[in-house]
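Hello again, I could really use a second opinion on something today. I've been staring at a protein lately and its backbone has me curious. Can you walk me through what the tokens say about the fold? Take your time with it, there's no hurry, and the full record follows here:
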Amino acid sequence: MSQLSELKSAIDLGDVASLLGYKPASLSYILYIKSQQSKYKTFDIRKRAGGTRQICAPVNDLKMLQRRLADLLQNCVDEINQANNRSDRDEHPDQIAHGFKRKRSIITNAHRHRNRRYVFNVDIEDFFGSINFGRVRGYFIADKNFQLQPKVATVLAQIACFQNALPQGSPCSPIISNLIGHIVDIHLVKLAARVGCTYTRYADDLTFSTNNPTFPKQIAIQLSGNDHCWEVGSELSHLVKKCGFVLNPKKTRMQYRDSRQEVTGLVVNRKINVRSEYRHTVRAMVHRLFTTGSFDFEYRAEGANGALVVHKNNGRPSQLHGMLGFIDGVDLYNRKVIRRKRSLS
């Protein structure tokens, strides 16, 4: 029996525990005996563009439980895609959502918006926080692909949620947010197709692009008197709100072909590329490491007056290794694209 079939036939906590590789008593202890505050460690991390993001990291036993639930749900999603002829192979990929998915990344997301006249970005505000316990439980009961027993859906929501929301830091928050976010994806991909745009989502980051002479007003409207100031179109805003989300008006950005266009941090004007400033910074770090034995790691954070200030710390080799790996990953992707084109020609 497939894992999806087993999950759909489950009727209580004991069945869920068996599916996740736990004894019912162990699962009950984590969910109902341990206090809520002892299950998570809360801390803030700096955002790249300034400000902080609160992370609620589960303690080890809960983290393992959530990771097993994430693997179970991802396997169920793979079964659903296979049953619906939505293959995950490179030549037939799911082209809508690219965040937190197997064989998907910021690179595959950016690839969909290469060489376009207009690229429009907008964010969903408080994406994880707007998915509460009731939405998670209700989704697993009502969705046609799952249709779980109410007791089972309740247990899954109890594993996944903290303080009535999906916590940032939980291993199962990404997959569950994608399942619920797929509802808005369906509406927005239909809107994009109707007005001649390409649409993708990476977590809370929505991107629309087109080569049309004018950008469709259903998605974004140019404000009079300011050629570079745009606001979200009424139809886009309505559809997102209808699905239980709200767009962040402070994070809208229209990018034009004659300037640098970026999607999920990658340049998309011609081919997928890393920003030249990033390459130069990493090259300088490498040079300094090999010539002096150390290097400075720079980051931006908000100062006392709210402005972004550049800070420097002693860099670690692991940080530089990750940055070099990121650049190499983008270059490797471009080489694969070139080889694929040559094989087809």
Q: What stands out?
A: The longest helix spans residues 317-344. The mean pLDDT is 90. The first strand starts at residue 40 and ends at 46.
